[in-house]
């Protein structure tokens, strides 16, 4: 599909331009109109996608959050925002996480990346990015580390937590791991829920309960925050399968899980649940700063690995109308969000790739749902810890 879209992109625009010239020369008004329409769609694609994003996908703007004016890494370095800070980027060996890690290194932070492979290369890239920085605040050279961990099981999450050393505590934690290798695999939904919700909850739970977070630390969750797409049926029916899945994961109500044929409902429910988790976390840990982001569509593989309609949309956006961001762009966007002045006034914020603060989906903000979610996640993790001891 991606290859096909690539060919479409490289062939259609020149062909449409040539067709337009040819039809004008031959006085063919119909062909000229068709070619003009094709050229218009390709040229105006990003504008149309932007309008559709605002109309269909994005929730309303959060009046408490001021739009961020993007700053360069040099400006952020001058301001000392990240200088000498200790940051953990879980999922920092590739994609958006790697973009964030390298930008943080450039801005003077001490960064630890987590993934299953390739972390040593990222450490080298961070060292190169920080080459101009001689010493951090405490007079030491910047510190970059790689923790090899498989976060696809609770045991894997526990292994990482046991490996992390303090002091000092972490000033920020970025959770951005994903793995869409087999979107049509038998346990695809369970794996997605585990990775995007349960494992991230377990990691946050472990970091906070072990005293690994600074008292005003930032917890950044990169997934798909603040989207208004809500599965039909809202709370009663839409989250039913999501609930069944959690229970499925705990081996209860296994039979009640019926996959929704519309993959978008599933993805939307996952994003809603991720924001619901942050809403509960912010209420329980008022000293910490919780940040949920919708990173935009990146050139990295993550988004393109989902199945169904999302997959087609992402390929179209990536290949046909070139409306994508590089991992470096995504990285800088996240640094700008993390450095936002608005964060000093609020312990919870959701952001999009346009650096606009947005309100959560109304289902995520539903206290019954987010309360149920938090209790369920706590039960899953506590049971596992008890079994492990
Ligand atoms: N890319 C997009 O266009 C897009 C759009 C919307 C939302 N998002 C969201 O943004 C986040 C990051 O996406 P991305 O495109 O950057 O993904 P990516 O390029 O696939 O990177 C994923 C990262 O997660 C790590 N990872 C995957 N499975 C892991 C496991 N079992 N244990 C430990 N680490 C693991 C990978 O490292 P290893 O392979 O070394 O383990 C890698 O560092 C995801 O939550 C995604 O849903 C992305």
Total beta strand runs? 8
Distance between the termini: 48 Å
Taken from the alpha-carbon principal axes, the silhouette is: globular
Mean pLDDT: 85
Provide the CATH superfamily of the largest domain.
NAD(P)-binding Rossmann-like Domain
The helicity comes to 40-55%
Ions and ligands: NADP nicotinamide-adenine-dinucleotide phosphate
Figure out the total of helices: 13
Quote the CATH topology of the largest domain.
Rossmann fold
Largest sheet composition: 8 strands, mixed
Characterize the structure shown:
By secondary structure, the protein is of the alpha/beta class. Helix content is 51%, strand content 11%. The chain has helices at 2-25, 29-57, 73-79, 95-106, 119-129, 154-163, 188-209, 234-238, 240-249, 263-284, 308-320, 327-338, 367-388; strands at residues 86-90, 110-115, 144-148, 170-175, 213-222, 289-293, 348-351, 357-358. The protein has an eight-stranded mixed beta sheet, with helices on both faces. α4 packs across α12 and α7 (188-209) runs parallel beside α10. The chain binds NADP nicotinamide-adenine-dinucleotide phosphate. NADP nicotinamide-adenine-dinucleotide phosphate binds at residues 91-97, 115-118, 149-152, 176-179, 222-224, 295, 297-298, 300-303.
Which structural traits does this protein have?
389 residues; alpha/beta; Rossmann fold; 2 domains; eight-stranded mixed β-sheet; globular; binds NADP nicotinamide-adenine-dinucleotide phosphate
